[in-house]
Structures are given as structure tokens and as C-alpha cells.
């Protein structure tokens, strides 16, 4: 199937906003999907994805109770196959926050949205970004007013339903000056074998703002999830993004930070567990443009069976970004001889007054620790599980929302319960 044949199956979808027509022109007229010849996609083959006939299923979801994070008090906004599901979403809104499905934005609200939509992500040079912009049918437009601290967490729940369902999912989050809020973007699947989800999230944090974004990916064992998250920060703002990959045959995460105001702090953490023939690829890019900013990055992976992990993190420090502190680490454990990890931490520094470091480790579970635990009566599987949980703990402790942290800990416990270590 050619690129044009692949795109043709989506061309009947209505372009809701002018930016979508522009993106369709870009992707139809010259911008190609990446191949393994592209440096940043050399370990992740997507050609089969863009040579597949997908579906646009009509799905009815009766309840989201089984998908809710236990004990989490949050406001749920739900999308089913990329379209807002009002009957499944919570009606009450946290004070000082507006949440609008993009399809329903009008008047000044729509104008405000269009000022930012597709202005922070690069859809002119990245095909999956352009694919998303071209064909998304709805999305979450969220604004937090100046000086507001939102106590209730906001969960954007995207449900992919039906075999070979293709979804282009969109989020735009604007956090006002000196405002604070936490967001969870949760991705779930229902009978969606062979599905593709292509996600773009733009989060803009104004001066003095503080925002955390948690990505919880669990659409199913035989699905593909491609996620691009762009964070733009103004002066003295604080951001945190935590990525938790629970399932997926192929998962690719692109996380980019634009640090464009002095005194910013940018934090990114990731935890991924591969088994079977899963392929999990995390790419990060932090663009330090101005002085006196900090960034911290820690990604940890545990790969079993014949799974493959990829990590490529790049920190760019421009000439004017003096007194930047930037730290990056990727740590991995291989639980089998057939699991693979490809890791490439990068620093590109043009300033001379900075503190920057990067590093990566690849190894197996500590044999002495394993021996110690087994000598205390634990079986091999129990000892493995305990060591994996301890390894992951440095990332999971960065999850400030206790019910979500407990949820992730439970998943780790279950994930490795039956591993033949």
C-alpha cells in the first residue's frame, strides 16, 4: 500500500479547523513517514503500520467503572474512538478550569484554542504529527485560569474500541500564570486488536505555572501507540511528565520540552516493562534556550522474553543558556538472553558555564541481592519481583498522586508474577 492509498482511507473525515487543511497538504505533498534509514527511527520500523487498512468503528461503551483508577478522586473527560463521550464524562468542573471538546469550541473560546493549536508541535517536518493534525476529529481543550490551584485531578480517558480501529487523538492544555494542576492522560482498549492510536498533546505553562502530566498507556497487547507530547514553558514555571507503559505491541513516545523562560524546571520520568515481543521506544528532547534553568530526566526499563526497548534522550543547551543544570539517566535490566535494549543519551552544549551529565546502564538483576533474598526463604520469582519493584521505585516515587502510584505498583507486581526469571 502506498502512502497515498494509506491516507485516502482517512480523507473522508471532515477537516474541522483551517490548520487541518494545511497539514493535509503537507503530508500529501512530500512529507513521508519515517523509515529505519532515519536516525531517530533506526530501531523502530513503522512501514507496516502505514501499509495497513484500518477501521472507523462505531462503538458503544456503557461504563468506564472498570477503567477508573481505584480510589482516585478525579474529573474524567472521556473520548471513545477520538470523539467526546458526554454520557461517560463527569459533569462537574473544578473551579477555575475550563474543559471543552474541540468540536464544541465556539466564539472567544474557539479563537483562544486556535491561537495555540498546532503552534507548539512541528507538523511540517514530522509525518505522524502531520497525520494527527490532518485527521483528528475531536480532542480535549483545557485551560487553567491565572492563579488557580486545581485540587481535583483531571483524567483524559481515551478508549480505543473495535478491531483495527485507527484514532488520531488530540489534547491542548494551557496552564495560566501562577496556576497549578495535575493531568492524567489514560489510554485504554476494548476489543481493539490491531488498532493504531496516534496522539499529540500540546501543554503550555505560563510564567510561574506548575503542571504535571502522567501518561498511562494500556490499550492492549496487540496494538500500536504513537505519542507526541510537547511542553512549552515560560519563566519560572515547573513541569513534570511521567510516562508509564503497561501494554502495546509497539509503543513510541516522543517527549519534547521547549524551555523558553529563565528559572524553569523541567522533569521527565519514564518506566517501561517489556515482555513477549513488545517493542517500546522512548525519545526525549529538552531544548534549553535561556539561562538559569534545570532539567532532570530518569527513564528505567525492564525487558523480558524477546522484547525490545529503545531510549534516545537529547539535551540541547544553546549559547545563551548559561548556568543550565541538566541531568539525564537511562537504566535498564534484561531478564532474558533474548531481550534487547538500544540506548543513546546525548548532550549538545554550546554554553560554557553549565552543569550537565548523562549516562546509561544495561545489566541483569544483582546476583548478590538475589542470593541474599533466596537465602532468606524467597523463591526465585518472588525475589525477582521484589528486586524489579525496588529498581522501579526511583521512578514510581515521582508519582505524587498516591492512588495512581499504588495502581502502578500493583501493575508491576502483576506483570512479573509469572515471569520465569
Characterise this structure.
- The protein is α/β, with parallel strands linked by helices.
- The protein contains seven helices and 19 strands.
- The model has no long low-confidence stretch (mean pLDDT 93).
- It has two domains: 259 residues, no CATH class; 54 residues, no CATH class.
- Strands 2-1-5-7-9-11-13-15-17-19 form a ten-stranded mixed sheet, with helices on one face. A nine-stranded mixed sheet has the order 3-4-6-8-10-12-14-16-18, covered by helices on one side.
The shape, in one word, is globular
Category by helix and strand content? alpha/beta
Q: Compute the separation of the termini in Å.
A: 41 Å
Unreliable runs: none
Average pLDDT level = 93
The Rg value, from CA coordinates, equals 21 Å
Helix content: 10-25%
Enumerate how many helices there are, as a single number: 7
Order of helices and strands: HHEEEHHEEEEEEEEEEEEEEEEHHH
β-strand percent reads: 35-45%
| Strand line-up across the major sheet | 2-1-5-7-9-11-13-15-17-19
Write the layout of secondary structure elements.
Elements (H helix, E strand, L loop, with lengths): L2 H6 L9 H11 L45 E7 L2 E2 L12 E5 L5 H10 L10 H9 L3 E6 L8 E9 L4 E10 L4 E11 L5 E10 L4 E9 L5 E10 L4 E8 L4 E10 L5 E10 L4 E10 L5 E10 L4 E10 L7 E10 L5 E10 L5 E9 L3 H9 L4 H17 L5 H14 L6
Parallel strand pairs: 1-5, 4-6, 5-7, 6-8, 7-9, 8-10, 9-11, 10-12, 11-13, 12-14, 13-15, 14-16, 15-17, 16-18, 17-19
Antiparallel strand pairs: 1-2, 3-4
Helix pairs in contact: 2-4, 5-6, 6-7
Amino acid at each position: 500500500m502506498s502512502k497515498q492509498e494509506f491516507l485516502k482511507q482517512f480523507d473522508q473525515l471532515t477537516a474541522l479547523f483551517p490548520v487541518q487543511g494545511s497539514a493535509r497538504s503537507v503530508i500529501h505533498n512530500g512529507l513521508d513517514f519515517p523509515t529505519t534509514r532515519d536516525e531517530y527511527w533506526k530501531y523502530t520500523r513503522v512501514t507496516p503500520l502505514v501499509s495497513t487498512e484500518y477501521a472507523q468503528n462505531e462503538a458503544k461503551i456503557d461504563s468506564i467503572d472498570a477503567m477508573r483508577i481505584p480510589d482516585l478522586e478525579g474529573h474524567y473527560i472521556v473520548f471513545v474512538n477520538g470523539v467526546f463521550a458526554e454520557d461517560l464524562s463527569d459533569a462537574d468542573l473544578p473551579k477555575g478550569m475550563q474543559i471543552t471538546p474541540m468540536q464544541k469550541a465556539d466564539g472567544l473560546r474557539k479563537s483562544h484554542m486556535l491561537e495555540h493549536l498546532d503552534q507548539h508541535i512541528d507538523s511540517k517536518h514530522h509525518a505522524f504529527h502531520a497525520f494527527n493534525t490532518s485527521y483528528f476529529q475531536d480532542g480535549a481543550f483545557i485551560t487553567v485560569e491565572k492563579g488557580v490551584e486545581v485540587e481535583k485531578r483531571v483524567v483524559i480517558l481515551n478508549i480505543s474500541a473495535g478491531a483495527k480501529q485507527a484514532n488520531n487523538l488530540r489534547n491542548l492544555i494551557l496552564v495560566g500564570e501562577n496556576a497549578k494542576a495535575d493531568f492524567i492522560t489514560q489510554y485504554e482498549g476494548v476489543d481493539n486488536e490491531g488498532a493504531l492510536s496516534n496522539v499529540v498533546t500540546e501543554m503550555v505553562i505560563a510564567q510561574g505555572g506548575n503542571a504535571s502530566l502522567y501518561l498511562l498507556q494500556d490499550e492492549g497487547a496487540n496494538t500500536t501507540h504513537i505519542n507526541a507530547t510537547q511542553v512549552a514553558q515560560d519563566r519560572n514555571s515547573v513541569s513534570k511528565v511521567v510516562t508509564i507503559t503497561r501494554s502495546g505491541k509497539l509503543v513510541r513516545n516522543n517527549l519534547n520540552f521547549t524551555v523558553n523562560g529563565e528559572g524553569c524546571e523541567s522533569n521527565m520520568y519514564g518506566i517501561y516493562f517489556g515482555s513477549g515481543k513488545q517493542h517500546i521506544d522512548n525519545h526525549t528532547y529538552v531544548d534549553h534556550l535561556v539561562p538559569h534553568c534545570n532539567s532532570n530526566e530518569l527513564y528505567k526499563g525492564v525487558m523480558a522474553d524477546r522484547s525490545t526497548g529503545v531510549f534516545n534522550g537529547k539535551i540541547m543547551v544553546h549559547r545563551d543558556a548559561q548556568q543550565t543544570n541538566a541531568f539525564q539517566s537511562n537504566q535498564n535490566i534484561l531478564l532474558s538472553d533474548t531481550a534487547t535494549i538500544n540506548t543513546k543519551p546525548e548532550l549538545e552544549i554550546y554554553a560554557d558555564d553549565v552543569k550537565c551529565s548523562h549516562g546509561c546502564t544495561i545489566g541483569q538483576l544483582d546476583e548478590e541481592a538475589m542470593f541474599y533474598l533466596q537465602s532468606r526463604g524467597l523463591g526465585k520469582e518472588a525475589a525477582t519481583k521484589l528486586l524489579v519493584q525496588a529498581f522501579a521505585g526511583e521512578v514510581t516515587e515521582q508519582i505524587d498522586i498516591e492512588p495512581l502510584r499504588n495502581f502502578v505498583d500493583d501493575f508491576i507486581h502483576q506483570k512479573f508474577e509469572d515471569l520465569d526469571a
